[in-house]
Amino acid sequence: MSGESNGKLTEAATVKKMELIPEIKFTKLFINGQFVDSVSGKTFETIDPRTGDVITKVAQGIKEDIDLAVQAARDAFDDGPWPRLSGANVQLYNVYADDQQRRRILMKLADLIDANAEELAALDAIDGGKLFHDGKNIDIPGAAETFRYYAGVADKIHGETLKMSREFQAYTLREPIGVVGHIIPWNFPTQMFAMKVGPALAAGCTMIVKPAEQTPLSALYCAHLTKLAGIPDGAVNVVTGYGPVAGAAISSHMDIDKVSFTGSTEVGRLVMQAAAMSNLKQVSLELGGKSPVIIFDDAELDKAVDLALLGSLYNKAKICVAGSRVFVQEGIYVEFVKKLEEKVRLWVVGDPFDVDSQQGPQVEKKQFEKILSYIEHGKREGATLLAGGKRFGQKGFYIQPTIFTDVKDDMIIAKEEIFGPVMSVLKFKTTGEVIRRANATKYGLAAGVITNNLDTANTVSRSIRAGVIWINCYFAFDRDSPYGGYKMSGFGRDMGIDGLDKYLHAKSVATPIYNSPWL
Ligand code: NAI
Ligand code: MG
Fold first, then answer.
1. Residue 18: its pLDDT value, please?
2. Which CATH number fits domain 292-479: 3.40.190.10, 3.40.50.300, 3.40.309.10, 3.30.830.10?
């Protein structure tokens, strides 16, 4: 399928997609190691964004289902084998120490994810509109590697020995935080599952995962794989359902110790409020963004254009770190815009199963309409529409890659997270000016800096208030590299060792060295 100028989806893609539609095997809640109906018996429909058709009905979890899942996770934490690092259940674990066993099970889970990469990628493609080939070759193997990364630290969780100011010796223990509630979004369903579940399991926590209602299928499939890998019953539970019901039951639960949330800033605020009003559970939030990509006059033009396109269109821009504000220095502005116009024409929108597609449909009708309404705002506010600006094709939730130039800082399209394939190009003169303008946002998730000048790169990197800076690259994600927000993009880090730490408590243990006179 070719670019937006074609205007409609081709037959070839329609035929190709049929061959790869996976059989849907798991649609029930996964609680205490079993797939079960919801307490109410209710279900909800999950939709294929390529067509708007119903794929299947999935169990609709409500508060009572969350209660059952929390009870299972609580029992697995308080009495089960998973959190115990040594001593207990030696017979069960045979010759391996428990922490090594945890590592081995996580490695097995990673292998199972790899072995089922095609099926998982297909589920994310039909449920979330994600590119099948990227899923099979990059996203799903990446999720497996995330489990391996955290498997590798499961037996290396150390405290410290402390030199106290009095006659004591003390040390810290790093203990699992307890029962975790993960509330996850629809933009990277399987990867997000790995990013949250991997470190929490490595830490020794037990958990409930609430996938987004738009993309419940791969999380249920992963639940099945956790069982095959040997993760004890109750350690990982998956409850599908709606955010304001099942999600809210997690954030307000009295027996959950931590909630790890990724999603919108508005819901992040609700989650934090619910945590405060219930049991003061710990919270980490990975929220929205409006990340700048700053391109200086000395940048290599082709590379800069490619990075700007990647930053704002990759994954249909359904990515919190999307580089949706592209600041271009005045010396190359005209040339940059010309090249951008040429290159965006080659960007391929199409069925996510088509090997040539670079951009599939938006996840759902609501998001699709929201993005189109932002595009209308851009037109009304007087930005120049360089490319796109409309839906793509007649069916499903596809949107043309859209670029606005001559964008001003106070336009809505420059301020709000669009979460769709819409780039805003803004002109700047000086380094000081662009730093100030790039920082003039309530968000602070990521930034790109494109320059060959080391001083410029260093100055900008240190001045931008965001959790990740990519110099002469974009989306340079790595499981060893933590990411997360400044400001209203949230707090707490995913990935890297920081991503493990957020599921651990430090406990201090002190003991006298000798009989101190005041003891
Ligand atoms: P959302 O924040 O509503 O959904 C994320 C998760 O939160 C889902 O699992 C949802 O079921 C759950 N949720 C919703 N309401 C809840 C509540 N009251 N209590 C607890 N959990 C709740 O995001 P939505 O509506 O799907 O997307 C809206 C916007 O959010 C997007 O347009 C985008 O701007 C942003 N977003 C950011 C993401 C990121 O990666 N940071 C991911 C998804 C959305
Ligand atoms: Mg869906």
1. 45
2. 3.40.309.10
> What's the CATH superfamily of 28-286?
Aldehyde Dehydrogenase; Chain A, domain 1 (3.40.605.10)
Could you say which ligand is closest to the alpha carbon of residue 186?
A: 1
What the block records as the tokens of 356 is 């040539």
185 lines ligand 1 (CB under 6 A): yes
Q: Which tens digits make up the pLDDT trace of 71-113?
A: 999 999 999 989 984 433 344 544 455 666 888 899 999 999 9
Q: What is the pTM of this model?
A: 0.94
User: In this predicted structure, what is the pLDDT of residue 98?
Assistant: 61
Across the chain, mean pLDDT equals: 92
SS3 call for 189: helix
Nearest CA residue ID for atom 35, ligand 1: 264
Assess contact for 401 and 408: CB atoms under 8 A: no
Kindly report, residue by residue over 299-314, the tens digit of the pLDDT.
Answer: 999 999 999 999 999 8
Which element (helix H / strand E) includes 251?
Answer: helix 248-251
pLDDT tier, 518 (very low <50, low <70, confident <90, very high otherwise): low
Is residue 28 within 8 Å of 378, Cβ to Cβ? no
The residues annotated with a catalytic role in the active site are 286, 320
Domain ranges of the chain: 28-286, 292-479
Sheet containing 468-471: give its strands across: 384-387, 402-405, 422-428, 325-329, 292-295, 446-450, 468-471
Task: Report how far residue 260's alpha carbon sits from residue 263's, in angstroms, rounded to the nearest whole number.
Answer: 10
3-state secondary structure of 381: helix
28-286 and 292-479 in the same fold = no
pLDDT at 9: 39
Residue with tokens 């040594």: 86
State the closest ligand 1 atom to the C-alpha of 241, by its place in the atom list counted from 1.
11
Written as one letter, the residue type at 321 is: V
Q: Whose CA is nearest to atom 44 of ligand 1?
A: 263
Does the pLDDT value for residue 141 go beyond 60?
A: yes
Cβ of 263 less than 6 Å from ligand 1: yes
Specify whether the CB–CB gap between 483 and 493 falls below 8 A.
Answer: yes
Pocket test of ligand 1: the residue of 264, 366, 487 to mutate, having most ligand atoms within 8 Å of its CB, is 264
* pLDDT, tens only, 224-269: 999 999 999 999 999 999 999 999 999 999 999 999 999 999 999 9
Q: What percent of the chain has pLDDT over 90?
A: 86
> Measured from the CB, is residue 288 less than 6 Å from ligand 1?
yes
- Ligand 2 center to 129 CA (angstroms): 8
DSSP secondary structure of 73-92: HHHHHHTSSTT--SSTTHHH
Give first-to-last CA distance, the chain, whole Å. 79
Ligand with an atom nearest the CA of residue 366: 1
Ligand 1 atom nearest to CA at 445: 41
Rounded distance, CA 197 to CA 122, Å?
21
